[in-house]
Amino acid sequence: MREIIVISGKGGTGKTSLTAAFAHLASPVMICDLDVDAPDLHLILHPNQTQSHVFMGGRTAKIDPEKCTSCGLCQEMCRFDAIEAAEGQHRVNPLRCEGCSVCVHFCPEGAIDFPEKQCGHWYASRTRFGPMMHAQLFASEENSGKLVALLRTQAKENAKKIGMELILSDGPPGIGCPVISSLSGVSYAVLVTEPTPSGRHDLERVASLCTHFGVPAGVIVNKSDLNPTECDGIEIYCRDHHIDVIGELPFDPVITRAMVQARAVTEFDSGAFSNRIRDLWTRICEVAIYNKN
Amino acid sequence: MKIAIASGKGGTGKTTVCASLVHVWPRAVAAVDLDVEEPNLHLFLHPHIESTEEVGMDIPIVDETKCSYCRKCAEICQFKAISVLGSVVLTYPEMCHGCGGCMAVCPEKVISTGNRPLGEILQGKAGNAAFWMGRLRVGEAMSPPLMRMVKKRLAQALGEGSPGAESPVDVLIDAPPGVSCPAMNAVMDTDAIVLVTEPTPFGLYDLKLAYQAFGQLNVPMGVVINRSDIGNSDTIAFCREVGLDIWAEIPFERNIAEAYASGRIIAETDPAHFAVFHSLAEKLQSVGERLTASREVTHA
Fold it and tell me: Residue B165 pLDDT > 80, yes or no?
């Protein structure tokens, strides 16, 4: 089974619009939205939920004011400044609590509860391009790495069950916990970037992350005509670091128009721009699926 | 006054807005990049870096020669960063959150403090503005500890918490995208939040998430609509419906996109753009003044 993920380091490079187009071109395919913090792919794919599950993500400490003697030991021991004292009463700020259980363990009165909390939902759905696994973390909740891992496992199991050979994922932005969780053991990462100083800076960081985890990667430069010099710079960087340049796409408002209509751009338009995306997908299939270089 | 420039979604123009605000800000200001996974503010402000500090977090080191293998450390650890298998203790530094539980619980006191590098904190000057940024080490999963350290250094530098010190410096924070722990960490303890969005279905969906997440902080929030002439009018309708002020609108213009692509501050490129950010700065300052006034009333 092959797993292709589209990531970008930086947000707003067109990752989700491209993933939707690739899902259209590859359909039927197992689709995964791994940006569990701010998922957007469902806005184009309109999934029909067949399963909805609660995601339990961790625990948060909670002080029982009846039992608390305000000795202050919990506040002293908490390394996350999550315990606040006001008017002689100690309480846990849930936004700061990391769920480490230190306060729970050391409270001399046994006054701190440690309930498991629900951090979001995850779903199995049907879309016009194939089955889809996706999730929504509750606002301000953590543990997105764990939720990403869960979605990937579910996608693999389901793909195996129905004999699907390819999983296509829309990845999270950044280079931290959720991206690391979404990269391990992936067959190929498509790195979407734009020819701007920040695009290039973030590409370099996410590309070194791929190297760090041994994931083969290729680059698509979106909006390439906004700065041809920077675009050349990116291509030189890729050549020097043995990263495949899959190709480039010019700035074209058609991608926004397709998004507003909730269509994949390749469904919406059959002009030159969509043809270029078809070429990019053919190239990705060659290197990621058939290992042709 | 401390202001966070945030957005549910990446790529909406957070850094553009932050850099331009720093440029037009009429008072002493510190620019802080808390998007430690992908810091970009320095690419536009071109700061002169005066110091770079490597920072790390506390992780456990077990002296196995003195360990009694009682497993208490493994039992308290919620992050599976330490485990005891027979007479072997394994630590997984990359899983550790640095809570110190294992060290505190060890009856033999044989767990000492090691260090896992998190990244670096850079500090300098961008024109008249003080400049701070954190940069996460590639391969490091946890950004909040590094963000907390940047905030700590900043507070020390601005003399916060020291008796009688009144911070004369406003702080503009470039926050990470999203609404989960790193983003919350950046907008916590601020006096106002600017939500940068674009009027597309993606932008609106993520704006709603940000409104939900940051709304619980009870801090004044307003919206900057970037590329205001692409997409549709649903974003404006949403803002009206929930009572979110639209503090500024920036049209999509190819020259703005090109200026950004060549690393320039938008407010610097054209008097019309300067005016947009200048008026945004004025709005933010009046939010700050109202805040100070209401605080004085509650303290009186």
Answer: no
- Per CB-CB distance under 8 Å, the chain B contacts of A223 are 257
Q: What is the ipTM, given to two decimal places?
A: 0.88
Contacts of A181 in chain B (CB under 8 A): 141
Q: Does A293 touch chain B (CB under 8 A)?
A: no
> Which residues in chain A are closer than 8 Å to B180, comparing Cβ atoms?
37, 137, 140-142, 144
3-state secondary structure B156-200: HHCCCCCCCCCCCCEEEEECCCCCCHHHHHHHCCCCEEEEEECCC
Exposed, middle or buried: residue A94 (CB in 10 Å: 0-12, 13-18, 19+)?
middle
Contact B180 A144 (CB under 8 A): yes
Contact between A102 and B100 using a beta-carbon 8 Å cutoff: yes
pLDDT in tens, A78-106: 999 999 998 888 999 988 899 999 999 99
Provide the 3-class DSSP secondary structure of residue A2: strand
Q: What is the pLDDT of residue A75?
A: 96
Closest CA to A277 of A30, A10, A3, A17: A17
Cα A32 from chain centroid (whole Å): 9
Predicted local confidence at residue B295, as pLDDT: 80
| Closest by Cβ to A101, choosing from B78, B178, B206 | B78
The band of A21, judged by pLDDT with boundaries at 50, 70 and 90, is very high
Interchain CB distance below 8 Å, A43 and B202: yes
Query: Considering only CB atoms, which chain A residues are within 8 Å of B98?
Result: 79
How far is A132 from A127, CA to CA, in rounded Å?
7
- Lowest model confidence (mean pLDDT) among A262-266, B173-177, B193-197, B254-258: B254-258
Phi/psi at A58 (nearest 5 deg)? 170, -165
Residue B137 is given by DSSP the state P
CB-based contact, A46 to chain B, within 8 Å? no
CA distance B116 to B96: 9
Task: Provide the shortest C-alpha distance from residue A74 to chain B (in Å).
Answer: 12
What chain B residue is nearest to A59 in terms of C-alpha separation? B78
- With contacts defined as CB-CB under 8 Å, which chain A residues touch B178? 37-38, 173-174
pLDDT at A293: 61
Q: What pTM was computed for the model?
A: 0.92
- Which phi and psi angles does B251 have, rounded to 5°? -70, 165
